[in-house]
Specification:
Blueprint (H helix, E strand, L loop, with lengths): L2 H17 L12 H7 L1 H8 L8 H5 L5 H14 L3 H9 L20 H8 L5 H22 L1
Helix pairs in contact: 1-5, 1-8, 3-8, 5-8, 6-7, 7-8
C-alpha cells in the first residue's frame, strides 16, 4: 500500500545525495555503471554479493541511480531473490528469455518495496527495503571515505 513508495522515496533521496542523482547524461551526470567503473572499492564489495558471472557494472546498467542498484543487490542477497527479477521489476525491462522470474516480471517499473512484495510476498517489504537502503547508503559512503 502506502509503505512501498515511502521506502522508495526515502531511498531515492538518500541515494541521490551520494551519487549525484539521476541516471545521467543530458546534464552530465554519470550513470550507475559508469560510477562503479571508477569506484573499485564499492565494485569489489558488490561483486561478492552478485551471482557468479555478473559484474556490478552489468548489474547496475539501466538503474535510475547507484543507490537504487546497490539496494537491489542487497535485497537480492539478503532475501535470496533473483537479482535479474528485481532488476527487471525496478527498471521495467523484461528479464532475459529463459529466466526463472515469475510471469509479468518487468511489465512495469516498480519501487524496491513493490518488487519485494511481488517477488517475496511473505517478506516485510518496507522493513527489507529500508534495511537494504541503509546498507547501500553505508556502502556508498564507506567507499568514498575509504578510497
Amino acid at each position: 500500500m502506502g509503505t512501498a513508495p515511502t521506502s522508495a522515496n526515502s531511498h531515492g533521496n538518500s541515494a541521490n545525495a551520494g551519487t549525484g542523482g539521476n541516471s545521467a547524461s543530458a546534464n552530465g551526470q554519470k550513470t550507475p555503471d559508469q560510477l562503479l567503473a571508477h569506484n573499485t572499492q564499492l565494485s569489489n564489495k558488490l561483486g561478492t554479493l552478485l551471482p557468479k558471472g555478473v559484474t556490478p557494472q552489468q548489474a547496475c546498467d539501466g538503474f535510475k541511480n547507484l543507490g537504487q542498484c546497490v539496494a537491489a543487490i542487497h535485497v537480492s542477497h539478503n532475501l535470496g531473490i533473483g537479482f535479474d527479477c528485481l532488476k527487471s521489476d525496478m527498471t521495467g525491462v523484461a528479464p532475459a528469455t529463459g529466466s526463472t522470474c515469475p510471469a509479468n516480471t518487468g511489465a512495469k517499473k516498480m519501487s524496491l518495496g513493490q518488487s519485494i512484495e511481488t517477488l517475496q510476498p511473505n517478506a516485510n517489504a518496507k522493513s527489507e527495503a529500508d534495511k537494504a537502503t541503509k546498507q547501500a547508503d553505508s556502502d556508498i559512503k564507506d567507499s568514498k571515505t575509504g578510497g
